[in-house]
Amino acid sequence: MATRTVAVVLAGGVGERMGAGRPKQLIDVGGRPMLAHAIDRFDTHPGIGEVVVVMAAGHLREAAAVAAPFRKTAAVIEGGDTRTASTIAALRTLSGRPDDVRVLFHDAARPFVDHPVIDRVLDALDAHEAVAVGLPASDTMVVVEDGVVVSMPPRETMFRFQTPQGFRLGTIRKAYELALADPELRATDDCGIVHRYLPDVPIRVVAGSERNLKVTQPLDVVVAEHLATGDTP
């Protein structure tokens, strides 16, 4: 049911690599902020019941103004200094929800995720507790230590992860409870937390999209502007 599915749009980063002097999620692409594009993808999806926006400290008012026109916006909250801290802030906001609620975590820096990708995540959550979005690696992948190649994993086994990543709320909640008890906690995404702290939970991988670009470097904005000209969910 849509009312039992929450999309969390993570906009907590400050985008230092962009050199824009403000969070990259607030940079205009195709005439509106990237954050607006990202929220729109979930606001217009019939399988999503509500949207929670997690924004970098000091920019909540701007984020709230961007999110206000979208009818499914349930909350705009302050994120943490890391991706992990921002996810934890979102989980605290959802603390009163049942374990079987489905929650999708999506990077606001990926403004063009399309509805078919979201569909695949939601469909997979019918049978799985954790779902990742990925694309097969097209380049040769190598492991490097001290500037020297130490191994070359088979390329056909390598995937590039995107977002959204979807979970049963009880599963991601439990994974983070265990993670927070670990003084050596280090992670770059939420599936990584599940993989490390709930190793018996399979993570289903569904197909992503080349349009689901993550805007990280200044050149990515040029590509995003091009994608925005034909932007459809």
Protein model, in words:
The mean pLDDT is 91. Helix 5 crosses helix 6. Strands 5-4-1-6-10-7-11 form a seven-stranded mixed β-sheet, sandwiched between helices. Helices cover 30% and strands 25% of the residues. By secondary structure, the protein is an alpha/beta fold.
Low-confidence stretches: none
What is the CA-CA span between the terminal residues?
A: 20 Å
What's the alpha carbon Rg, rounded to whole Å? 17 Å
Structural class: alpha/beta
- Main-sheet strand order equals 5-4-1-6-10-7-11
Q: Secondary-structure element sequence? A: EEEHEHEHEHEEEEHHEH
Range of strand content: 15-25%
Rough shape? globular
Please report the total strand number as a whole number.
Answer: 11
Mean pLDDT: 91
In oligomeric terms, what are we looking at? Answer: single chain
> Helix tally?
7
Q: How is the main sheet built?
A: 7 strands, mixed
Helical content stands at: 25-40%
